[in-house]
Design a protein that fits this description.
Elements: H1 2-42, H2 56-66, H3 84-97, H4 99-104, E1 106-110, E2 114-119, E3 130-135, E4 157-158, E5 163-165, H5 173-188, E6 197-202, H6 213-223, E7 230-238, E8 248-255, E9 257-266, E10 270-271, H7 280-293, H8 304-311, H9 319-326, H10 328-338, H11 342-348, E11 351-359, E12 365-366, E13 369-378, H12 384-397, E14 403-411, H13 422-434, E15 443-449, E16 465-473, H14 475-478, E17 487-489, H15 490-506
Parallel strand pairs: 3-6, 3-7, 7-16, 8-15
Antiparallel strand pairs: 1-2, 2-6, 4-5, 5-17, 7-8, 9-13, 9-14, 10-12, 11-13
Helix pairs in contact: 1-9, 2-5, 5-15, 13-15
Length: 514
């Protein structure tokens, strides 16, 4: 008995040592990186002038930008996706607001409304350019929600606390305007870029980018242009995460794929007075309930969410969380139960959501065919084909017959960009530069972009695409995107301008490739 007890103690001691070693190793790696930024910034005053700028003129231009209803929609007549006059006025506003951008950069108009600018570098022949991109269009505002808005969504109104309300304040005129403001500022102080900086702004991202970003990508391909990296809209700085005290700046290193899977059940129709045992509506309902109860498996240790949490280990307030997330493979089942929240679960695996049901033609006729549209968002490593196979397996398990499946609008998940390269380190460095005043200090982590962006059209142009928005938000702000009372604080908007101005200078710094 004593020998067994001794063996058990030895095994437990070895297990505890393994947990401690893994935790220490990961903490040390992240903290060494984090400390390196802090040390570098303490000795670097290169960007101090950006702290003392009067941002009010820049903020006023953002206010006026919101007053332009650049809505894209598939419901306009004649096959148009935007209202021509609205975009003509918007473009005139941009040209008047950024005279140096329009006079000193090479401008290209794509598909009538998309804008591309080239700031050619002095060392363009020996360096690889970067692309900063966003989109000009916004989603419509539902008439039935207008009474819920604090101010009219296209009025460009600011409340007493400095919040600018309006459609596009977060998605994503703040991206277009802050990038143009950053370039305009650098031009105004005589800055010369060595590396070429490209700006690209599609006009129909909200409906897929098939008229804008798709042709912008073709434009670059026709020139043989490749980018060192691309920055697109994406994840914000979140200040109210449960497991860490720090504000977390997430940089999207991939985005989910998208497709619609149509499920169709063939049953036996007839008169409702003589019910059939093979009712298509009942069988389809059983399948939908089964898919809800048996979702695709979530993945932590092998997915991007695992990378996110690993990067946050040193900043977790609970030491037990540090140990568990440093040993994700050992604790994965427990951790998945802890992370059982809709927004988090969406990052852990492919999701399936019924969105449209169709069946029946009359009250007294049994539907012979019932169908459902399942909106699927696939994580990297999975596909709509693998999701279809999973649905078929669930149908067989529950003995649901007569199933036909069709896949529509299949967009694969994006490739995963590296976090161990100069571009990611530069983005991380600039975050620490811009937000070094925050206490506790900002934490930067890779993340998965849940929604789609124009960057899916640009994947052939680079190996590195990063999706983020350098603006502070909390969980209550996230629901405002595409929703009611979308807003941005004008001070946070000024920080966005600083971020992009510093990023442009950083990629020209000799330390960038070090």
């Amino acid at each position: 008995m004593l020998q067994i007890s001794a063996i058990l103690v030895s095994v437990l001691a070895a297990f505890a040592s393994l947990l401690a070693y893994n935790t220490y190793t990961i903490r040390s790696h992240v903290l060494t990186r984090h400390g390196g930024f802090a040390q570098s910034l303490a000795a670097d005053h290169s960007y101090d002038e950006l702290k003392n700028i009067d941002w009010r003129p820049h903020q006023q231009r953002m206010i006026r930008a919101i007053q332009h209803p650049t809505i894209s929609s598939l419901n306009y007549p004649g096959g148009n996706v935007v209202i021509h006059d609205d975009f003509v006025k918007w473009h005139a506003f941009l040209e008047a607001s950024f005279p140096l951008v329009y006079s000193k950069l090479n401008k290209h108009i794509i598909s009538n409304y998309s804008l591309v600018f080239e700031w050619r570098g002095t060392a363009a022949e020996t360096t690889t350019p970067i692309l900063l991109t966003s989109h000009q269009d916004v989603v419509p505002v539902e008439d039935k929600t207008l009474h819920e808005w604090k101010f009219p969504p296209f009025a460009g109104m600011v409340d007493d606390e400095g919040w600018l309300y309006g459609r596009g304040t977060l998605d994503v005129k703040n991206g277009v305007m802050s990038q143009l403001e950053a370039v305009e500022y650098l031009l105004s102080v005589g800055y010369q870029t060595k590396r070429s900086i490209w700006l690209a702004y599609g006009h129909d991202e909200e409906i897929g980018g098939m008229h804008g970003a798709r042709y912008i990508a073709e434009f670059f391909k026709s020139r043989g242009t490749r980018f060192d990296f691309i920055v697109d809209e994406g994840l914000p700085i979140v200040g109210d995460m449960d497991i860490v005290a720090n504000s977390v700046a997430s940089i999207g290193i991939a985005e989910r794929g998208y497709c619609d899977i149509e499920l169709q059940i063939q049953g036996i129709g007839g008169h409702a007075s003589t019910p059939s045992q093979n009712n298509s509506i009942i069988h389809l309902s059983k399948l939908l309930v089964a898919l809800e109860a048996e979702p695709l498996p979530a993945k932590l240790a092998s997915g991007i969410m695992g990378m996110t949490l690993e990067s946050l280990i040193p900043f977790m307030t609970n030491p037990l969380h540090q140990v568990m997330f440093a040993n994700q493979e050992l604790f994965e089942p427990l951790l998945l139960s802890v992370l059982d929240k809709p927004a988090v679960k969406a990052m852990l695996g492919t999701t399936m959501t019924p969105t449209i049901l169709t069946a029946g033609t009359a009250h007294n006729v049994i539907a012979q065919v019932a169908s459902a549209n399942i909106n699927v968002r696939t994580v990297p490593g999975e596909s709509c084909e693998s999701t279809q196979a999973y649905i078929e397996a669930v149908a067989r398990k529950h003995k649901i017959h007569g199933l036909r499946i069709a896949i529509h609008r299949d967009n694969l998940p994006s490739p995963v960009s590296s976090i161990e390269n100069p571009p990611f380190r530069a983005l991380e460095w600039v975050y620490h530069t811009c937000f070094q005043h925050l206490r506790p200090s900002i934490a930067v982590a890779p993340g998965l972009m849940l929604a789609g962006t124009d960057s899916k059209h640009y994947e052939v142009l680079t190996d590195s695409i990063y999706r983020f928005m350098p603006v502070r938000m909390n969980s209550t702000d996230l629901v405002r995107i595409h929703g009611v009372n979308e807003r941005i604080h004008l001070a946070d908007y000024a920080e966005m301008i600083r971020y992009f101005a510093i990023l442009i200078q950083r990629v020209n710094d000799p330390e960038y490739d070090a």
